[in-house]
Write a structure and sequence with these properties.
The chain is an all-alpha fold and 445 residues long. The chain has helices spanning 3-19, 24-40, 42-56, 64-77, 80-92, 98-114, 117-134, 139-150, 160-169, 173-201, 203-206, 215-218, 227-249, 255-273, 278-312, 314-322, 328-343, 349-366, 371-384, 393-401, 409-432.
């Protein structure tokens, strides 16, 4: 059997182990060791994979992961999401589908300081869903808009997935952050347009009582914010965004330093707001450690698997398979996107990136593709998996956070389906018009 055939079999073995319940990092590292041992012998397998483990996270660049995770969790524990929602609702309540627009807008702002989709899903399930149900929105739409907008946290910088992709492909973290701004705004705009369109064309999907526009009738029940309240609730969040992203894009400090400064600023804000107790801060530190250890273990395992595939010659075989075809680039991208969508039904976002990117990156490099653009396409496509069954991690988080047990998991998936289709539309736009990734250039950024 040819080496590349063993490499292809290893992909199926990893998927089978995941289906059997194995942790993705264990599956990756185990299959990597067996593959190299079969091709080169056990001693070489031990040596090669030990080097992979040592090299994969030895750079100080990896300090950016726990720092941004810490910053995001501190802001999440400080009720910043609720304040962002209150401010967005204040300005958008009079528009048809206004609470849906407020949820998307506040999630986009929240994403700029957390970078974690699951955190956004948990926060806005408790903040937005009860308010939308009270004002006559359909339960399916209420949970669907929260699920859909939660994925913005993985695209709008500082996103953990952008950081992981940059490290994995040896790209600039700052450049990946820069590239995520335009597509993040684009996806938010498509969501808002979709919500307004559904409110006019499919009112029974949006509203619970005969498709009636409830916002105007019930808006008086909600307290109005004064200008001082808007500044008090929105000011700290905007300040943190300016400090972190402004410092990176302005060349004042590196992304790793930005993570440290952002975490310190988030802690100061939380203390000033008196919204973070010692117990909750300890829980934030523990969760930061758990997330960091999990991500680093996954990166180590992915590095092992990437080198094992190289030993087996799979990337070279795939490159040879598609070379010489006039339309091979679009064909490769189509295959790549379809495979990611399928994997998204069973595997989490980080794991998909760590499996698929090392497999296809050499091919796209050989075709002269923009690796930053490739990363944005990858992350948006991967995030669709958060909304699709059977895994649909964002949908499960929403179900676990819901105060209303009458809403079933199937309602959440059906409510999130239009937003998954909107994401697929944005992927098609970015594949067709790659310059959308660098939309900041149009404004002299």
């Amino acid at each position: 059997m040819a080496p590349y055939e063993l490499g292809l079999i290893s992909i199926g073995a990893i998927v089978a182990l995941i289906y059997a319940g194995a942790y993705i990092a264990v599956a990756l590292s185990l299959v990597s060791f067996v593959l190299v041992a079969m091709l080169k012998g056990t001693p070489i397998a031990v040596h090669l994979l030990t080097l992979a483990a040592a090299d994969s996270i030895s750079s100080q660049t990896f300090a950016v992961i726990p720092l941004f995770v810490l910053m995001g969790l501190i802001m999440s524990a400080s009720n910043v999401g609720r304040d962002a929602y209150d401010v967005a609702d204040h300005f958008l309540r009079r528009i048809r589908g206004g609470l849906g627009l407020a949820t998307v807008t506040s999630n986009a702002v929240f994403a700029a300081v957390t970078g974690v989709s699951i955190a956004a899903a948990a926060v806005f399930t408790r903040v937005a869903v009860p308010e939308m149900l009270r004002l006559g929105y359909h339960p399916r739409f209420a949970v669907g808009v929260v699920a859909g907008s939660s994925v913005l946290g993985m695209l709008i910088p500082p996103s953990i997935l952008l950081i992981i992709y940059a490290i994995l492909t040896d790209q600039s973290i700052g450049m990946m952050f820069y590239a995520g701004i335009g597509p993040g705004i684009l996806l938010s705009a498509v969501y808002c347009a979709g919500i307004i369109g559904m409110a006019f064309l499919l009112p029974r999907f949006v509203y619970d009582v005969d498709g009636r526009f409830a916002d105007l009738h019930a808006s008086s029940d909600r307290p109005r914010l004064s200008a001082l309240d808007v500044i008090r609730k929105g000011g700290p969040l905007i300040l943190l965004i300016v400090i972190v992203l402004g410092g990176i894009y302005g060349g004042v400090f590196t992304p790793t330093e930005a993570g440290a400064i952002g975490s310190f600023a988030a802690l100061i804000i939380a203390i000033a707001r008196r919204s973070l107790t010692l117990k909750s801060f300890w829980n934030v530190l523990l969760e930061t450690g758990h997330i960091t250890a999990s991500v680093c273990f996954l990166i180590i395992a992915a590095t092992m698997y990437s080198r094992a595939l190289t030993v087996a010659g799979v990337p070279f075989w795939l490159s040879g398979l598609v070379s010489g075809e006039g339309d091979s680039f679009l064909l490769v991208m189509l295959v790549y996107i379809v495979v990611i969508l399928l994997l998204g039904t069973i595997i989490d976002s980080v794991s998909i990136i760590l499996i698929m990117v090392p497999l296809f990156l050499p091919i796209l490099n050989g075709m002269g593709a923009d690796i930053v653009w490739f990363g944005i396409v990858t992350i948006i496509t991967v995030e669709i998996g958060l909304l699709t069954p059977p895994l649909g991690m964002a949908c499960f988080v929403i179900k676990g956070s819901l105060p209303d047990n009458r809403i079933k998991l199937g309602d959440i998936f059906s409510g999130a389906a239009p937003f998954a289709l909107m994401m697929l539309f944005v992927v098609a736009l970015i594949v067709s018009f790659p310059d959308l990734v660098y939309v900041g250039r149009w404004f002299g950024m």
